[in-house]
Amino acid sequence: MKEDKYLREIEIVCPVCGSSSFEVNAAVDGLVEMTKCASCGREATKDELLRDSSENVAEHVKEMGSEILKDTVAEMRASMRKALSGSKYIKFR
Ligand SMILES: [Zn+2]
Question: Looking at residues 17-44, what average pLDDT do you find?
Answer without folding.
Answer: 83
